[in-house]
Amino acid sequence: MKLSLGPLQYYWPHASVMRFYDAVAATPVDIVYLGETVCSRRHELRLSDWLEIAARLIDAGKEVVLSTQVLIESGSDVGVLHKIAANGLCAMEANDMGAVHVVAGKQAFVAGPNLNLYNLPSLQWLAALGASRWVMPLEMKRDDLAVIQAGRPAGLQTEVFAYGRMPLAYSARCFTARNRNLPKDDCRFSCIDHPDGLLLKTREKEDFLVLNGTQTQSARVYNLVDTLDDMHALGVDVVRLSPQSQHMGEVIDVFHAARMHVLAPHEALAQLQPLMPAAGCNGYWHGLPGLVQHTSAGEPATA
Q1: Is 153 exposed, middle or buried (0-12, 13-18, 19+ CB in 10 A)?
Q2: Who contacts 57 (Cβ-Cβ below 8 Å, separation ≥6)?
Q3: Angle, in degrees to the nearest 10, between helices 75-85 and 47-59
Q4: CA distance 261 to 236
Q5: What is the model's pTM?
Q6: Dist CA 249 CA 86 (whole Å)
Q7: Could you report how far apart the first and last alpha carbons of the chain are, in Å?
Q8: Cα–Cα distance between 194 and 245 in angstroms, integer?
Q9: Which of 19, 62, 161, 224 has its CA 20 to 30 A from that of 237?
């Protein structure tokens, strides 16, 4: 079972991104997804910069995939999409059906988690169009995945989002800008000040959601490190980790140790606790509300 590093969800300065991926090159992660998936106004890195990073990671022995934007809102967004599809260096992760249309029948692609593939007929259709791997929707439970795994098309790999704040929704509006009473078209790139997103609390001061520009994330960190053996038994091919600004190399090392059985599941879970930017959760995998942390003893807990 391989480890992948998903696309960077946040807006970081150019130098920070370069340092981050230089460090990633030395980690045991097998697959790296690159590119802007959240907002086309983020211009610290252009496509040429992502391709430069891709070349370095390929030289380091990584498989690299370029991810497309989830919401395509303009002609320039469409133009970037076509350039990604024609990059000639790496495969593409399609995050909307427009991206699928661009590459369908022409080249293999990864069907991203935002395509909302919940049943076998949808999966078989995407495989017929050229999908070589699909990423399970975040809220799909383990038992539903087991049904799909039993009948998935031959040669189609399965990837599961297993660590990070979950991207729950996307909007044409920018909530980070709205927090500063700024319009989206004059956002002043507010999200660059929040390297792990802007935490939103309830009136009772409980962590609720994280605002990340046009994207809304979970406040809690989804963490399935203690289910890797179960995933392997189900035939999961790739486990995805989502980037965070601190301790990412250490997080990758813990997942690698867990998949190699150097760490027991409970040990890996304990080692990740101080590395996470917030409390953990795993409810969706167990068919429970997403914010729940299901304990090894089988009792759900929310703290």
Answers
A1: middle
A2: 21, 24, 25, 32, 34, 64
A3: 20
A4: 17
A5: 0.95
A6: 31
A7: 30
A8: 10
A9: 19
Q: Is the sign of the CA dihedral 10, 16, 20, 21 positive or negative?
A: positive
Distance between CA atoms of residues 196 and 176, nearest Å: 12
| Cβ neighbours for 142, distance < 8 A, ≥ 6 positions apart | 227, 230, 234, 285, 286, 287
Degrees to nearest 5, angle at CA 261 with 259 and 262: 110
Per-state percent for the chain, helix, strand, coil, to nearest 5: 40, 20, 40
Which structure tokens are listed for 78? 């469409």
Both tokens assigned to 273: 């606790």
Please give the DSSP secondary-structure letter assigned to residue 122: H
Query: Tokens representing 135?
Result: 């990423």
Residue 66: closest CA among 42, 48, 50: 50
* Burial class of residue 2 (count of CB atoms within 10 Å of its CB; 0-12, 13-18, 19+): middle
Closest CA to 126 of 109, 147, 139: 109
Give the list of residues 6+ apart from residue 80 with CB closer than 8 angstroms, or none.
40, 47, 69
Neighbours of 297 (CB within 10 A): 6
Q: Per-residue pLDDT tens, the chain, 303 aa: give them.
A: 999 999 999 999 999 999 999 999 999 999 999 999 999 999 999 999 999 999 999 999 999 999 999 999 899 999 999 999 999 999 999 999 999 999 999 999 999 999 999 999 999 999 999 999 999 999 999 999 999 999 999 999 999 999 999 999 999 899 898 888 998 888 888 999 999 999 999 999 999 999 999 999 999 999 999 999 999 999 999 999 999 999 999 999 999 999 999 999 999 999 999 999 999 999 999 999 999 999 865 444 544
Pairing status of strand 31-34 against strand 293-294: unpaired
